[in-house]
Amino acid sequence: MSHSFSSTLRSPSGWGNLLIVPTEIALEFKAHHGHRTIVTVNDRYSWHAALMFHGEFGHYIMMSKDKLKKLDLEPDEGVEVQLEPDTSKYGAELPEEFEAVLDTDPEGQRAFEGLTDGAKRSLIFMVSRYKTTDGRIEKALDLLEKLKMGITDRKILSKKGL
């Protein structure tokens, strides 16, 4: 079940870019599907996201500068939005290279699966940022080695090597 609506991008100081979600749509979506969603803007670009709430802004979805650039949008511009339930295992698209590394390292996979859902997504995003296959494989291997050593601090995990 998807939810479609018109929205406006807001860029409050210190907050980045917020895609405002009408309260009635947000509450209905959360009641049926939780807060993880796949967002599509202007029928052109989709991504995994969290439906969040803040008293000052109401319900919203964070939108990075990179996404604004890909969609050629400016703050305070109107957009068409579609929310779909995110039924993926991790709430993010697992790069195939990371999946292959997890499949070949049972101990690393156990360490990864022992993390919170948010921590798993953070690591998935760390691997996804690499543009090349070799870069994604190298980062996935590095992350699993650190996890097997008991390292879970995101600042340490984000750096190459120890």
What's a quick, concise take on this entry?
By secondary structure, the chain is α+β, with helices and mostly antiparallel strands.
Protein architecture, described:
- With 162 residues, the chain is of the alpha+beta class.
- 42% of the residues lie in helices and 26% in strands.
- The protein is built from 7 helices and 7 strands.
- Strands 4-3-7-1-2-6-5 form a 7-stranded antiparallel β-sheet.
- Strand 1 and strand 2 form a beta hairpin.
- The longest helix has 16 residues.
- The relative contact order is 0.14.
- The model has no long low-confidence stretch (mean pLDDT 92).
Topology:
Layout: E1 3-10, E2 17-21, H1 23-33, E3 36-41, E4 45-50, E5 52-54, E6 58-63, H2 65-71, E7 78-85, H3 96-104, H4 106-113, H5 117-128, H6 133-148, H7 154-158
Antiparallel strand pairs: 1-2, 1-7, 2-6, 3-4, 3-7, 5-6
Helix pairs in contact: 3-6, 4-6, 5-6
Query: How many helices does DSSP assign?
Result: 7
The stretches of 5 or more residues where confidence is low (pLDDT under 50) are none
User: Separation of termini?
Assistant: 45 Å
Total strand count, please? 7
Based on helices, strands and strand pairing, what is the structural class?
alpha+beta
Q: What fraction, in percent, of the residue positions are helical?
A: 40-55%
Strand content: 25-35%
* Sheet with the most strands, sense and barrel status: 7 strands, antiparallel
Average residue pLDDT: 92
The gross shape turns out to be elongated
Order of helices and strands: EEHEEEEHEHHHHH
The strand line-up of the biggest sheet is 4-3-7-1-2-6-5
* Cα-based radius of gyration, to the nearest Å: 17 Å
